[in-house]
Structure formats: C-alpha cells, structure tokens
Amino acid sequence: MNQAEILEYLKTDDRSKVRELLARADQVRQEYCGEGVLLRGIVEFSSYCQGSCAYCGLNQHNPNMPRYRMTKDEIVQAAGLIHSSGIQTIVLQSGEDAELDPGWLAEVIREIKTSYALSITLSVGEKTREVYQLWRAAGADRYLLKIETTDAELYARLHPGMSFANRLRCLDNLQELGYQTGSGIIVGLPRQTPEILAGDILFLADRNFDMIGIGPLIPHQATELKDLPRGNVDLTLRCVALTRILTKNAHLPATTALGSLDKDYRLDGLRAGANVLMPNFTPQPYKKSYEIYPGKRCISEPTGQCALCMESLVETIGRRVDFSRGDSLKKVTQKK
User: Fold this and answer.
1) Would the annotation count 123 as a binding residue?
2) Is the pLDDT of residue 334 over 50?
3) Which residues are recorded as binding [4Fe-4S] cluster (predicted)?
C-alpha cells in the first residue's frame, strides 16, 4: 500500500470503504498474529518528568501533579502480582525522570528476572546508548519509545527542549542493541494533516518495529493544548488498521487512551487489527497520580482487577486472552 492509497483511506467519507479497511485489517491480524490477545502488565513507577510536552499531564510545569517514585521493593512486589495473574510481560514506565539512576533500574530488572523470569519492557524515555546497553545486559527485553509524530516541525512545537534527531538516534540505538523495539504516534495533534499521518504510518512500517502504539490525543487540562478537542476515534481506528495491513505481524495494542474517551473503544481497536491489551498494575495510591491525560480508565479499581476485566472484555468478541510471553513475531520470522 503506497502513500496515495493510505491517504485515500484516511480522507474518505465512504463508510463502506472504512468498513472494508477495518475488516481487511482484522483478517491480516488473524492470519499473522492469530486470535489471541496478549496482556502486558504496566507498572508506572515514577511520575517525575523533565519534559515540557504540550499535551501531557506529567509536564514538569504542572504544579498540581503529585510526584512519586516507587521503591525497588514496591516494583518487585507489583511484578509478583503480574506473575501470579498469569501474565508474562511487565512494562516498567515512567516520565523522563532526570533523577533515575540507571544502575538502580538495572538492579530492579535483574531482581524481577531472578524472581519471576518475566519479559521486561522499559518505557522510560530518551537515554544514552550506554544506558540502553546497561539495561539490555541486565535483562531488559523490549523498549517502547513513541515518535509521536514524524513531522520534525510539529515535533519541535509540541516537545520544547527536545530534539527530533535525538529521538531517532534513540530508536536507532535500541534496535541496534537488540531490543524488541516499539514506537507509535498520537492521532489528533494540532496542525496534523492526513499527509503527515500517512508519513507516520509509512515510517512505522519502514522501521520494522516490533510493537506499535497508536492512540488519540487526550490533552491534559493543565497543559498548553487543554482547549483542543480529543483525537477522533474513527481516524485513530483507521490508522491502527492501516498500520496492521502494512506491518502484518507487529504487536499493536488497543491503547488505554482508546479506552478513556466518552466510552471504551478498546474492543473497536481489537476489531481494527490490534492484538494487545495492557492492564494497569501500578499500586494505589500511585495509580491515580500518573495522570498523563484526564479520564484515564481503571485508576480506581484494586490493583490486578484490570486484568480480570480484560479477560471478560476479550471474550465478548469471540477472542481469547493469550498468556504467553508474546515476543516479537518479527524476531521469530527472522530466525527461521
């Protein structure tokens, strides 16, 4: 599928064409990924952030955001709960925490590996190649770093003090070091055109990422973009579907953001080509304090309850939860 064809699907008002697109994406997902829906347990271990992103509640200029850092014991305990739930992947996520000690996180990684043998995904922002290498050697398997947008001018406007070139450098380093690497985009950014979105989708496919997250913009009320409307669900689902068709076997989550709008659209995401759900295992009281956007789903439920809900959710559309590690299908293909 070329850029012109992608644009046609992004711009069309013909609902039959949209339905055709979503059905095709679902068929590709079934053929290349199967019926299973993988679960990844998220632990948001620090809400500190040195970033000034124009849409995110963790923005360093937000004085009302409660800041916290979980201890190593708290993180390992959360990993134990994930393990006892049958889930084999933990996602350790934080803001761009300037005080994060790379050696400390390496110790956390080693302890989780030793205690529970979980697959470990990190999502802690931009670091040096040396730090990425340290964590890889400690046992980290995967890394998620969203590009957000591939339009360099738009990227600079929304991420003051950050560099698009450095973002690309980080993604290069991660792939070179053998991480199963994930990236992704936000749909609904200001001045984001269909042409920009088409470029984003082609970038995600061309880079052969193992995981790709696509979610709608939900601007936080304490940020510069607070008055913007939320990202369009229909357009987000089209982007998920197009990405599935182009990437074939990348792991695509039905993002938490899709579940945090006027209703829960994660099932729609699963029908549009997604094959991953990410239950939140951040313990209380921290869970409520990691507010990257307002209305975030599943913040009041007891830790671990989210996973049980997702099993029921998946069954309503005739799919099943897959409790395997869910390693990259691209890596498996390359080894054959």
Assistant:
1) yes
2) no
3) 49, 53, 56
